[in-house]
Every structure is written in C-alpha cells, then in structure tokens.
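Summary for the funding panel

The consortium committed to producing paired sequence-structure records for every protein in the target list. Below we show the first two records in order, beginning with the earlier of the two.
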Amino acid sequence: MSIEAKDLRGNDAGELRRTVRKLEEDLFKHRLKKTTSQLENTMLIRQTRRDIARVNTVLAERLRANPAEANMAAKADGADEPASETKAEKPAKAPKEAAKKAANPSAKQSAKQSAKKES
C-alpha cells in the first residue's frame, strides 16, 4: 500500500527525511532482489519510487512555505553551518578539467594542430 501525501503533511521535516532514507533502502533491496530473480512483485519498485517522490514533494512544499525551516533542519541533522555556506567552500572545477585535458593526448594534438594552422 502506498503512502498518501495528506498523511505525510502531518509529519515534521526530520521524520520525512528518515522516511525518504528508509524508502531508498527499501528500493535498493527491491532492485537487488529483482536482479537475483527473488522479487515476486516487481510493482514494488514503482510504488517505492513514487512514494519517495511523494515524500520529497511534501518536503519541498514545506521548505518553500518556510525557508527558515531549512536552516533549522540542517542544524538538527548535524550540520554546523547553513547549507548556503557549505556550497561556497566547494573546490573549483578548473583543476579537474585540466586533469582531463592532460589525460587526453588527442586534445593536446588537436590544440597543436589548430595553433599550426593559425600561424
């Protein structure tokens, strides 16, 4: 039986996150059973995916209605800083791109060939 959104709206954000985590674990177990041909009812995968989407929708509605709740929930989950500050600390992507170019010799050759054509 699937979860209904009206039942989820009565829960707090922390409870909804725990529900999503449990549903994702269930989905993983269902997929594992399916690949080993032990899952009898394959409709469980679809129902679980839809339940996850339903819970995420209720969470998003709640965060849109009260953005301050997002910071409180992040602190309650163990984060010391608001989510906006942690995003600014991520490293730039430029070193990864440089590493890809260094790993791809054909890119170097095409750059050299284009430089030769220009001169």
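The next record, for a separate protein in the list, is shown here:
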Amino acid sequence: MMKILSWNSRALGHPSKVLSLRELIHSENPGILLIEETKQDQQEMRAIIDQQKQYKGCTSASRGASGGIATL
C-alpha cells in the first residue's frame, strides 16, 4: 500500500517548518508528498526538495504572498 501525505504548510520560510517537514517525512515515510501554500519561489523550494534524498519532485512557485505547491 502506498501512503500519500498532503500538508498545507502555510509557508516554509522558517527553519523550524523545514525541520518539521523532515520529521514528518521520517515518521510517516510517504510514497508521495504534496505540500501546499509553500509561499516559496521555485529556487527556494528546489533547495528544500534536494535535501530530501529519497524523493524527486517538482514545484510551482508562489505568486506574491500566496500559493506555491511542491510534489515529491
């Protein structure tokens, strides 16, 4: 069975949220991870995704202070 996890992060700009993301990935080990409302530009999200060695992903940048999606 594949586990899919969807998280409305309400911005990943703070280091504590990135740490929470890592802990969530480690504890749940989802096959697919969807992150909404990252509020990050594509380059910032790419750096966060690249830190997650077990995943490949794509992003859609935020527009202003809203949006941003990452699929891993």
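Regarding this second record: The first strand starts at residue 4 and ends at 8. The radius of gyration is 11 Å.
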